[in-house]
Design brief:
The protein has a single domain, classed as 3-Layer(aba) Sandwich (Rossmann fold). A hairpin with a 6-residue loop joins β6 (133-139) and β7 (146-151). The relative contact order is 0.26. α1 packs across α2. The chain is globular, with a radius of gyration of 14 Å. Mean pLDDT is 87; it is low at 1-14. The chain is 20% helix and 28% strand. It is of the alpha/beta class. A seven-stranded mixed sheet has the order 1-7-6-2-5-4-3.
């Protein structure tokens, strides 16, 4: 049984929506990663298995990360060196409350001149900067091989 998530989207935020195959999601992520300029926090939401880590891997490739990008489910935070910028990848799935972000060095991470990619951002609700970029991934009910990407 998958855990339901709630969209982490600022009120009145404009939304874009597109249905993508895994390959298209990776291509989109690489283009997005190549275009990112720090400091930026990207909040990536979605049910289990929708492709959050796949998207993070593509964003990191686009930003010039050459090492293997893995899910920080147990470590909670991974740091990568991109071509031009440092990238932090956080997976907040195991957090029980937003206050636990302090122990991860959250304030230092978000105030650094870095690209910060966060999976399961709802676990850190209230601690995200107001200009964080929300991206949601959903299963496409019309096509099980596609994901709906909602950005902005």
């Amino acid at each position: 049984m998958s855990e339901q998530h709630h969209h982490v989207v600022p009120p009145r935020a404009p939304r874009g929506r597109i249905a993508l195959t895994r390959e298209e999601l990776c291509e989109w992520g690489e283009r997005f990663g190549a275009a990112l300029e720090p400091p930026i926090v990207v909040a990536i939401s979605g049910d289990l298995g929708t492709g959050k880590t796949t998207l993070v891997q593509a964003i990191c490739r686009g930003a010039g990360v050459t090492e293997s990008v893995t899910s920080p489910t147990f470590a909670l935070v991974h740091r990568y060196d991109g071509a031009k910028y440092v990238i932090y990848h956080l997976d907040l799935y195991r957090l029980e409350r937003a206050a636990e972000l302090t122990n991860l060095g959250w304030d230092d991470i978000v105030s650094s001149h870095a690209i910060v990619l966060v999976e399961w951002p709802d676990r850190g609700a209230g601690r995200f900067p107001p200009d964080a970029v929300p991206i949601d991934l959903e299963y496409d009910p019309a096509d099980p091989d596609r994901r709906l990407l909602l950005a902005g």
